[in-house]
Fold this sequence. Notes:
The complex is a heterodimer of chains A (299) and B (279).
Chain A: E1 19-25, H1 29-32, H2 37-48, H3 60-69, E2 72-79, E3 81-82, E4 91-92, H4 95-104, E5 109-114, H5 120-132, E6 138-141, H6 156-165, E7 169-172, H7 192-200, E8 206-209, H8 216-225, E9 229-233, H9 243-250, E10 257-259, H10 268-276, H11 282-296
Parallel strand pairs in A: 1-2, 2-5, 5-6, 6-7, 7-8, 8-9, 9-10
Antiparallel strand pairs in A: 3-4
Chain B: E1 5-10, H1 19-23, H2 35-45, E2 49-53, E3 56-58, E4 65-67, H3 70-79, E5 84-89, H4 96-108, E6 113-116, H5 131-140, E7 144-147, H6 166-172, E8 178-181, H7 188-197, E9 201-205, H8 215-221, E10 235-237, H9 246-255, H10 260-274
Parallel strand pairs in B: 1-2, 2-5, 5-6, 6-7, 7-8, 8-9, 9-10
Antiparallel strand pairs in B: 3-4
Helix pairs in contact in B: 4-5
Amino acid sequence: MDLHEEGITMGESSYDVKAIDYGANLFTAEANRIRPKEQLRQFYTQKIGIESRMMEGVSIEEMIERMDRGGFEISLLISTKAGPSGTPYTYHMPYQMVADVVNKYPHRFRGLAGIDPTMGMKGVRELEYGVKNLGFVGAHLYPHWFGLAPDHAKYYPFYAKCIELDVPIEMQIGHCLLYTPDYPLRSVGRPITLDTVACDFPELKLIGIHMGYPWTEEMISVSYKHPNVYIGADAYAPRHWQESFVNYVNTWGQDKVLFGSDFPLLDFERIRREVEELGLRPDAKRKFLRDNAKKVFKL
Amino acid sequence: MAKIIDVSVNFRPHTEVKFYDYMGIRRDAAHPLDPKAYISEMDRLGVAKAGLVANVSANGIGGEVLMTHVDEVAPVVKAHPDRFFGWVGINPLKGMETLRYIDYGIKTLGFKGVHVYPHWFGVPVDDRIYYPIYAKCCELGVPIALQVGTNTPRSGAKCVARPILLDDVAFHFPELKLVGLHIGWPWTHEMTMLARNYENVYIIADAHPPREWEKPLLDYITQKEWINKDGSYKVMWGTDWPVQMLEPSLKEVDELNFPPEIKDRLLGENAIRIMGLDR
């Protein structure tokens, strides 16, 4: 499906660049039935404090309206794998649930294949199925949900498979939060661990999302070093981004950065407004909001 | 009498390694496998088939990689498909290139397994770099054989593959056929313990003269241990030619006086089943 280029108006948005969001979550009532109740209550409601109305579920149509208000053309939807399946604290969002939404609104969404390294070859085959049969454009990984740093051997078959399938993998780098006190997770994703992965797999397109916070400098160094390591800026509101990162986006790292929402953690309209307020150079802004994602995910 | 399969034959000895000096073996006496001569030797001794290894080693860790390419071996296998099958020997350090090489050797050339001499490359066999290789073998449905005992003496390699390092691998890849080469010596008992503990771990009893096979291996093959229910189905005999030669090796196996059905499994039936030679 071709992307819209300049001059296409979407909804109420008047932004000049139609943004591509490299990572958003389905938050429909249907999707939330899969998420653990305590996680919804303690993390989304208490910790993050998203609009209480949203907790009843955000329909796809409402999500699209929100994307329109923020000037987003496309969101990549994550078929999240948050931990091994079969515990009261973890969940897998089925690939098919994401694929159904993408099929219904092919102009607005693409799918990302979640990865659970404990699934071994079954997981590798599912990833292959997601890309080849469901048309997913990349893989997605939450290392902290598995207690294994990104350079752990168990991920390596998945990395090799991403190269074979010619798709990028994005993964949360930096600390992680407490999703529920009953199931604490260690922060295993230091940015420097991606250095190891990139040395072992120079061909692998890696996107460290959440900016590697609080090790953003370390994330910058790894992405600057390796041609195929990118930084994804999401989950933290742009007005809180540290100066050195904004400078990286604006100047020396302008080809190595992508923009995302991590919806519903952050709303499209707000993050777009705040990015516009950063006063980025037009070329750098366009790459950050759109062109880099288009290139990396081959949209 | 069932078919006899010599499961491991090095296609071309890498005479550059210093082992030849240590052993006092003349380098000009070492030669690549002569298929016709080997087949006539096989005929004379009643050996049905042999597994040719496109073997890869190095002149010490970090030294020149000594590679027999699968393309060197493939014409011989192709010319005698009823007498030879191929092993894809690999350099485990080459990342995606290694995976593509395996794909080529198995899918395009029809070789039957993957083969590694880890000690020449200095990286333990449970290291992250091996995991995509194991996954590739699962995908292709072929066994991987790894030398898991001592390294070759006085040749600049070091021991990075005790049998126990396969424990995690066997656990994480239950569908992978993991084969310990060279009996795991001197950790023979560790090797048989692994083969006992995991359905997917096997042993190739080669490189050591059968007259020196130790009690843990013999007891494993004959299922003498009280907790061993299928050891006779999990060991494959081979020569590791030119390290051992067909005639003395077979004679020494005879002299071990295995019950006939167990000897048949050891000498051929297991290789046919595990390596998929009847497919």
